[in-house]
Amino acid sequence: MVTPSDTAVEAAQGAPLLTIRKLCQSFPKAGGGRLNVLNDLDFHVGAHEIVGLLGRSGSGKSTLLRIVAGLARPTGGEVRFRGESIDGPNAAISMVFQSFALFPWLSVLENVELGLEAAGVHAAEKRERALAAIDLIGLDGFETAFPKELSGGMRQRVGFARALVVNPALLLLDEPFSALDVLTAETLRTDFLALWAAGRIPIESMLIVTHGIEEAVLMCDRAIVFTPNPGRVTAEIPIELPHPRNRQDPAFHALVEEIYIQLTSPPTAPGGSIVQHPLTPGSPLPHATTNQMTGLVTELGSAQYGGKADLRTLARSARLDVEALLQIAEALQILGFAELADGNLLLMPDGAAYRSANTQERKTIFAAHLRRHIPLVEHIKQVLDDRPRHEAQVIRFLSELEDHLSKGASKAVLGTAIGWARYAEIFSYDAKTGMLSLDNPSASSGR
Amino acid sequence: MTFELLISPGATTRRYRPNRWDVLAIPLVIGIVMSLVMGARQAIVRFDMGDRLALSLDPANLPGYALRSTLRMLIALVASLVFALTYATAAAKSRRLEQVLIPILDVLQSVPVLGYISFTVTAFIAFFPHSLVGVECAAIFAIFTSEAWNMAFSVHQSLTTIPADLRDASAVFGLTGWQRFWRLDVPFAMPGLIWNAMMSMSGGWFFVVASEAISVGDKQATLPGIGSYISIAIQQKDLGAIGWAILAMLVVIMFYDQLLFRPLVAWADRFKFEDTPGQIVPRAWVFDLLRRTRFLPWLLHPIDLALAWLRKLPLAGKFRPEASPAGGPRSVLVQVLDLVWYAGLAGVAAGLAWQLYRYLSPNVSASELLRVFRFGFETALRVFVLIMVACAIWVPIGIFIGLRPRVAAVVQPIAQFLAAFPANLLFPVAVILILKYSLDPNIFLLPLMILGTQWYLLFNVIAGASAFPQDLRDVSKEFRVRGFLWWRRVILPGIYPYILTGAITASGGCWNASIVAELVRWGHDTVRIDGLGAYIAQATTEGDYVKITLGVGVMSLYVALTNRVLWRPLYRMAERKLRLG
Fold first, then answer.
1. ipTM for the complex shown
2. How many Å lie between the alpha carbon of A268 and the closest alpha carbon of chain B?
3. Of the candidates A73, A115, A76, which has an alpha carbon nearest to the alpha carbon of residue A94?
4. Which of A90, A141, A352, B434 gives a 20 to 30 Å CA spacing to B210?
5. What residues of chain A lie within 8 A of the CB of B172, using their CB?
6. What is the pTM of this model?
């Protein structure tokens, strides 16, 4: 593992194409103050390399990509591309979008030509270059088709052709394969890597945001691991396997394992000490439903795992990507049902008790843990207890949360908390009136 | 916006040799262009206010008159299109403008067009003295006002819902603001815009009929057209001529539908933002025909080149990210500018209010004001009752039709067609019946108010019932949910937003129609009921501008209040709770 400040790598790879120093990004919060999304970020992308950005959701990977693309301006620090500071979209930086972002009213050819048209390329040259890119990326015969006629894989090929036709030096990829099914993603990735390895793509370097760890190990020369709240780089892992890479290779396994451990390890402060965040009512909560948590606890306690499972195996058998799995695992961890350590998930005694209980007992156990470990739930419960009619507008708690979190995050966190508390029958919520209350819908008022 | 679907990308290099489809298409296009030119030439003749144009009730003149009306409609449509795009873009690009422009649009939408027609006629004639152009402009303006506001709303709605990834892609690939406007904003707004234009045609024809023959006080302005033909037929009590006019109107609407809107809707389908090819692809024979020709690409190629050239104009800069991330606390300078802006707006508003007060206060007594509000209440009550009655009739019928796809496929275009037909053409028939059988106008004039707008209710309900998910129908069948329970628990909640949309549109139309429906003439006979509509109509005939202003103001107030207090909360509730999926 190489620390971010190690300049030896930089020197070995020549002058970096992209340099990021002390980058900070924060957003204003509703109640004043700012929410840090990226904090003191330092890294670089050298010439002729593929760099992968990995991290849990909320670690600011996509924010970083938007800054490099010139779509957003950071609040602090600098981003230099070929030595020049980035202050808007750059003709030599191109991007492939997760959602493809194709214009539905333009044909494949016109979509590919878009960047050339904006650059004022002459009609004949424009057509020639676009056709060449379409040819290269394997879209022959689809020139006149419209995006909605194409399958997801073909659409993303258009996305690639459109990004490559402008001859960028740096290509940004924002989870380019995650909207595709596994087989299609594999085909596209293999085709693209083959073109890159054969030197048929005139790009210098690539920066790819992904949450597929295997994808990162398959594609990248270096993986950079982000930790959330606020986003910072916690590890840089060089991947020096020769292309094409073999998933069965033990060295491949070792790298995947190493990244898993980095991703799941508790956040460490810059000094190396483990940061323990005691949750407050304004803390973010992982996005997981009670059904998912119950499912994971059940799976974890099954004979197959016996209370301890490797996250990678678990993700595969549960058919979840790491990101989603981590959210559920983290929820179990803060509730005291399980523990994350070194890429493994361990079932705790309370989790085991929850697993073997019946439906009503489960609710009781869950309720007790919620009130003990999730201050937000306890806070709402106490407010409701104190009110003479035992009810309160949900807006009230939402605006409280907005003092600590962004608008969207507040909504998500409150939604998660209400979902958990409803399951545990701690309080109930009426979506029609926006009221939280202690009483359950009685038989008489039920229609 | 480009015509690239018509010109397939390969076609630019292909020769423009005529093929068999051109045999049909060339005469069609040339014929339309020629008749439009002929119609336009007649408008430039000398005219002074008060001149009576020689209009004859000879049916042989009707095609010519119909052409003139059609032309007015077309000009108004183009003007509305340009207005909608510029107005909505201005509102979407500037926060400060948006704060003013959108509420203004909202108010404008509540103002009854027929109410202020008398003002616009006078104003336009002052602009173009001694020429019919002024009167033409006034008529076109009336049609424009019936279409422009909701088209602008539609564009604004589209512009604020453009997917973020497409905006990002335009920025990353270096499109300038101007290029983005043509490549992203306009195409994205297109389907909604065309749909809205088609829907507001009903209002458009209504105002063609109402605005071609205007008399303000002792001044009269008559333009050759179907509307003035009708008004003369009414003066002369010529029932046969009215029959001919109705026939001509039906033919004109059919032409508009077939030659203009169906091809446009079929063309706009490509701009729909959807992932999969639509289940029902709108088709139009004219569109299919034109697409197969070689002549049309040849005709449109210059337009396409012109648009490409237009896109290249260096009219706006490339995207630059804002210094402070969106939603950040604004800088002191911006806050000061905001303050100045608001102060300016408040000043203008206060000045206008003062002017209005000075204009009205010496001439309007408190009792008159009270009387107008009472009239308004009466009309409001009528509108409310009519909407309820229309719902009771059309909701079950619409559900019946909508749940049967084959019936719906036949009935839906007919309902749309009927909606476009200006109901005021049928008023004379009603008056004759009321006079002949001495019927009570308080009951028998009422249907006229909703005659034209009830169709909105019908085809919204049909659309809702057609979209009702099959699995929900299956579930209710499986659990034997039938009779009253099925209505209350299944279908009515399921299509409630559609019913509401229909009812809102219909009630807006009702208010407008009250101005012509509460006071109806047949020769020298007049049938009237007391109400705000009749009040405005009476004031217009007398040329009493104070009363017109008062009446229109109060009516706008009623409409705006009903929207705020009744319709919008209902709609929001529907959106929140009853949205399917």
1. 0.77
2. 28
3. A115
4. B434
5. 69-71, 89, 93-95
6. 0.78
